[in-house]
Amino acid sequence: MLLGLRISNVAVIEEVEVAFGAGLTVLTGETGAGKSILVDSLGLLLGGRADADAIRAGCEEASVEGVFERTPVLGARLEELGLPDLGDEVLVRRVVGRSGRAKAYINGSLVTVGVLARFMRGAVDIAGQHEHVSLFDAGLHRVLLDRYGQLEQQLATYMCDYAAVADVVERMEALGGDENRLRERAEFLRFQLDEITKLEPEPGEDVRLDAERKRLAGSEKLKRQGAEAELLLGGEESSAVETVGRALGLVNEAARTDATLAPVAQSLGAALSELEEAQRRLNRYVEGLESDPARLGEVEDRLDALKRLCRKHATTLDGVLQKRDALETELSTLDNRQEVLEELARERKSAEDRARRSGEALSRARIACAGTFGTQVREGLGMLALGKAAFEVRVTPGLQLKAEGLDEVEFFFSANPGEPSRSLAKVASGGEASRLLLALKRALADSDGCGCYILDEADAGVSGAIADVVGRMIKDVSGHRQVLCITHLPQVAAYSDAHLLIRKGLKGERTVSEVVALDAGAERTQELARMMSGVEVTREALGAAEALVRSASRASGPPRTRREPAPEGGARGRLRRSA
């Protein structure tokens, strides 16, 4: 659920902060007052495209902040993404700069817009006044049916089985086809493999050879340095061994008088032993060093060959060894292609059988819920004065395995009795499509995981007595989900739990939009009367508005308590602190 929204420097909005509660909140106002700006701004928090032209003139950046209720789904996504968890609320912020660069934050942590979109996916459903156009896309019909029937897990099982089939088919296609192409491929693999095999590289060989090359190339210098070090350790006069030995003798003699010097004597004795051992090892090292130009040449040639091989395959020596194993495997597969194809054919049949079984189970589940879904949508259409309209969900199972099941799913509709049902694109007018969209929203309300519906004039094309029924239906949906509804219909606005008025005015010489929360009494009645009568609110319009409110109150029961965020710990406080 959306708890609060703050918008800064977007179009005609300079600074607006709004708190939202449960149930139905309507937003009304004159055309162009800025109602849809709120919806567009909310779209930015969902990862929508940022347009620098939307930034208020004279400002370098615009920002939108929203506080959402922390659901288990959002909590799991915070943990998955390693983002801070602030408790009961999630703060999302989007900043758009004049240069077009945008920044996004979740609970104060900077994220990419792509991460923001994934994090907010499914949290808010925005239905615009033109969204009924998407109902004409039959590809959406399957998605809606699966969502209604909560068939996501069965679909995931089928898609996993289908992916196994696609994998086998891909491997078979790699082995099938033109014999000349496969023979050329085998010859090329054999050439590459022979090149690696002839060189016979060993793991870590390049590192060992490089160390040996350095030692051979610097043998004379190493011998000179080793001999000099050995002389300093154990030469005739003033060597380290001789100096430490004399010091040890003096300390041993003194220790016979003062026993506290015994540890010093032990340390000197240990140091003398280490120095003598170092001298012996240096002696052996120097004597073992030989200048061997022939071996140095061999090592350098071998290193060059290994480096050429690594460059050719664009990898390290370990990568070359892995490539050798892969070449051997592929070549063996090609050499035994017929046997491998027969094995893959058996594997493909087994995978297709599994996919077909899971696909048929998915088809049965779709068919089972199609009837119930159609019934609920028809009930909604009946409430919207389309009681004689025909609506059905046709699930046509096929034999061919496809990425999302065996079925074709399509909605069929007829607004007039006696007329055959046809696909939506051919029969639904704008007003009928708007009512069908609302009926679908109502049917999906129980199964949809979305916590907040935004209806941006989704009731467009509806008028007269049907408008009251539309308001009643939207009110019914708000019993399951938070609903924010932008509307020009007073019959819809009368059903609201909270009423926000968006209006334009002048601040200095600049036009600004503001959002005013209307009281449930006279202020709200005044706005409903304005929606009915226009600029001049007549006494008759006020009377009609009061009647609308009374009628809506009787139809929807007691008013819903609006949740107000806490001043400091809740949405309003969080939004202030994030500024």
Topology (elements, then pairings):
Blueprint: E1 2-10, E2 13-19, E3 24-28, H1 35-45, E4 61-69, H2 72-81, E5 89-97, E6 102-106, E7 109-111, H3 113-120, E8 124-128, H4 138-149, H5 152-175, H6 179-199, H7 205-217, H8 219-234, H9 240-255, H10 262-288, H11 293-313, H12 317-335, H13 337-383, E9 390-397, E10 407-414, E11 422-423, H14 424-427, H15 430-444, E12 452-456, H16 465-478, E13 482-486, H17 490-493, E14 498-507, E15 510-518, H18 522-533, H19 539-556, H20 571-577
Helix pairs in contact: 4-13, 5-13, 6-12, 7-11, 8-10, 9-10, 11-12, 13-15, 15-16, 18-19
Coiled coil: 317-361
Pfam family, one: SMC_N
Protein name: DNA repair protein RecN
